[in-house]
Amino acid sequence: MTKYLITFPSAAMVVPDDELPAVSDASRAVVEEAKQAGVWVFGAAIDEGVPPVLVDGDGTVTEGTYPQTKQLDGGFTLLEVPTREEALAWAAKFAVACRCAQEVRAFHYDPAS
What value does the mean pLDDT take over residues 17-29? Predict the structure, then answer.
């Protein structure tokens, strides 16, 4: 089975404040569904209050991220499913719950994980 990363940036999720509880409830329902289906690996929202740092091989710590990255925020989910089509179906469920499009990426297969 392949692991898929499903993500969205914070800026994509434009929801009025009074609708955030409904979005949270809908998202948690999809997470619970994925757990019950046995495809859930991990998921979370990036804590945007904690700035990223780069750690070099010599231990040097530099504030910020790779220049080409610019910004990494929002939420992500890691699922393990048998087909790309199933990953896309789960991404559609998250898109409905979060009210924004979801990006889907496949990880290279690793028999040890």
Answer: 95
**Element at 79 (helix H, strand E):** strand 75-81
Non-local (6+) Cβ contacts of 59 within 8 A are none
Query: What are 39's strand-pairing partners?
Result: none
> What percent helix, strand, coil does the chain show, rounded to 5?
35, 25, 40
Average pLDDT taken over every residue of the chain:
93
Cα separation values, 34 from 14, 41, 80, Å: 24, 9, 10
User: Looking at residue 68, what is its pLDDT?
Assistant: 81
Contact 89, 104 (CB under 8 A): no
- The pTM of this model reads 0.85
Q: How many CB atoms lie within 10 A of CB 52?
A: 15
What tokens does 10 get? 């914070």
Task: Please list the alpha-helical segments (H only) found in 1-113.
Answer: 20-37, 84-98
Quick one: pLDDT at residue 8? Answer: 92
